[in-house]
Specification:
- This protein has one domain.
- It is built from six helices and no strands.
- The chain is mainly alpha-helical.
Length: 138
C-alpha cells in the first residue's frame, strides 16, 4: 500500500460529493431543493476538512522535511500555488450556513460554489498527477 492511497481515496470521495452537489446548481432546482443541497454540502465539508487537516498537518510537513530535494521543492511550490483552500472553504461555509441562505440568493451560491469547485478540482488534479506520483516513486 502506498502512502498516497488514502489521500487518493479521499479525493475520490470529495469529487463524488462535488459532482452530486453540482447537480443542484441550477436556480430553480436550488429554490426547490436547498435543504438537500445543504445536506450534501455538509457531507462535503466533513470529508474535505478531514482531508485538508491530514494534508496540512501530516503530509505536507513530512514532504517539506524530506531528504529528497525535488519532493521538498514541489511540496513548497504546491503550498504557495494552491494552498489556502482551507480558509476560503471556511468562509464559504460561513456564508451558506443553512438552506434559507441558499434559497435567498441561489445565483450567488451557484457562482461561488462553481468557483470553489474549480479551485478544488484543480488542486486534486495536480496532487493526483504531479505530487502523489513523485511521492510514490520514493
Amino acid at each position: 500500500m502506498l502512502i498516497t492511497d488514502e489521500y487518493r481515496r479521499q479525493h475520490e470521495e470529495i469529487l463524488e460529493l462535488v459532482n452530486e452537489l453540482s447537480g443542484y446548481l441550477y436556480e430553480q432546482k436550488l429554490k426547490n431543493n436547498a435543504l438537500e443541497a445543504r445536506k450534501i454540502l455538509s457531507k462535503l465539508a466533513g470529508a474535505l476538512k478531514v482531508h485538508l487537516a491530514m494534508e496540512d498537518n501530516s503530509l505536507y510537513p513530512r514532504l517539506l522535511a524530506s531528504n529528497d530535494k525535488e519532493i521538498r521543492e514541489v511540496a513548497r511550490q504546491f503550498i504557495e500555488e494552491i494552498g489556502g483552500i482551507t480558509p476560503v472553504f471556511n468562509n464559504y461555509l460561513n456564508k451558506w450556513p443553512n438552506p434559507a441562505s441558499i434559497e435567498s440568493n441561489p445565483l450567488e451560491f451557484i457562482n461561488e460554489t462553481n468557483e470553489l469547485f474549480n479551485a478544488l478540482k484543480n488542486r486534486i488534479y495536480r496532487e493526483d498527477n504531479i505530487l502523489y506520483p513523485l511521492i510514490d516513486k520514493t
